[in-house]
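In this section we walk through a basic example: taking a raw amino acid sequence and producing a predicted 3D structure, encoded as discrete structure tokens. The instruction is simple. Fold the sequence below.
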Amino acid sequence: MMQALKSLFSQPKLRRFIVALRVPLTIVAIVLLVPFLKREWLLAGFVVSMAGELVQLWCFAALDKNSDLAARGPYALVRNPMYLGRFFIIGGFLLLLGQPWILLPYAVGYWLYMDSRVGREEARLRQIFGKSYARYCAQVQRFMPGLPQPGQPVAVWDWQLFRRNNGPFNLALTLAVWAAVAVWLHWRTM
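The resulting token sequence is shown next.
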């Protein structure tokens, strides 16, 4: 069954559909879930989501896409930190539903998506970076953060990369959505 679910995320047509419609689908999901949000979960959800956002912003400041093997900053700790950051961003929003059990099916679904997508990305990165990527994979875990290899810089923040990777826009959008949710929750409970 798990293999069937994993193969679902490998369907090229489905992937193109989701990518093409990810913004409208997200807006529809938010609109459908808004009536069920609980104000008492606002702080917990915000903290979890912003922890994920900080990881993602750190990734933006360390990643020079397709021109350099990212093995510094968060990529010195785990090969796919941006997906972990996104997991917590979305998880924080889901906490607003006040139903922590929802996190289990979310985690399973996200794992299947992430495992499938990362598999495709790793195949592409092996073609681009060859043996250096193979060495990196042997030293850094795929999903679980670990200790960096000696000499790997962790405290990395490149403002130029941060801007080029749309870090400021991503942060502004995440904060705007949280502000809108907070205002709506406050207004609804008045």
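Looking at the output, two observations stand out. The helical segments are 2-8, 12-20, 22-33, 42-60, 81-95, 103-139, 159-164, 167-188. The mean pLDDT is 89. In the next section we compare this with other chains.
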